[in-house]
Amino acid sequence: GILKEGRSCVIGRQTQEAENVLENTAQKISSPLYRLGKEWHWEMENNKAKYESATRSMHFMPALAGLHQFDNAATAIACLDQLPQFTFSNEQIEVGLMQTKWPARLQKLEHAKLSNILPAGIELWLDGGHNPQGGEMLAEWLSGQQKPAYLICGLMGTKDAGGYLTPLTSCIAELVAVPIPGEVQSQKPEQIWKSAIELGIAVTAATSVENALQTLASRAKTPSIICICGSLSLAGKVLASLE
Q1: Which pTM value belongs to this model?
Q2: What's the rounded Cα separation, in Å, for the pair 196 and 203?
Q3: Burial of 175 by CB count in 10 Å (0-12 exposed, 13-18 middle, 19+ buried)?
Q4: Do 106 and 128 form a contact (C-beta atoms < 8 A)?
Q5: CA 241 to CA 137: how far, in whole Å?
Q6: Is the dihedral of CA 236, 239, 64, 144 positive or negative?
Q7: How far is CA 190 from CA 103, 157, 187, 196, 233, in A?
Q8: Mean pLDDT of the chain
Q9: 147-185 confidence digits (pLDDT tens)
Q10: d(CA 92, CA 224)
């Protein structure tokens, strides 16, 4: 967010360089620091996360998939602790986090229109991450699922396909490159295909997400995961087609 004089500066997990910039800026405008690892903490305890600060101690479990969502949830709790004009009980926060929905951020798709294309045992997911950090988060989550993973990937022309795909090279069985429908700035599947080949990823191309699903339905192992990924624009098109 935007730092303002006198307002608390809540800092979650950052690179050291970014944290230094935030701390220096906050000090210049007399913004009190509220930092992960210093003023507040979180850790895993008995398969559930525990948040600790001088004013609050609570367990929490985010509904959103991915280990990074624990960081995000804990940072949200820290922000609530720095809003003295409001009162939130631990129970209210825990229920809120367990009921949170965020379309296209590791969202499981169970709509019949798409999932009926796939045989039983294949899960279909959607993720709008589109940069190297998004690729890292997706790779971390897929690696923890202990199932073969297949990607249907579309990217905008301004995105670095190699940078996005590099973290994913060791955790996917196959990638199908697709265009983003209706987007003149969409990367051509051939461009994504070339980047995947350079990284040693098994890759094919398809003309649409539906065609890609049909391709993978015929050869994906079960149980396994198929994730449509690479672009919020592509994710939006997929979700709109299900309405």
Answers
A1: 0.85
A2: 7
A3: buried
A4: no
A5: 26
A6: negative
A7: 28, 12, 8, 10, 19
A8: 94
A9: 999 999 999 999 999 999 999 999 999 999 999 999 999
A10: 35
Which token pair is 5? Answer: 């004089």
Tokens of 69: 């969502």
Amino acid letter, 159: K
Q: Give which of 10, 65, 68 is closest to 39, Cα–Cα.
A: 10
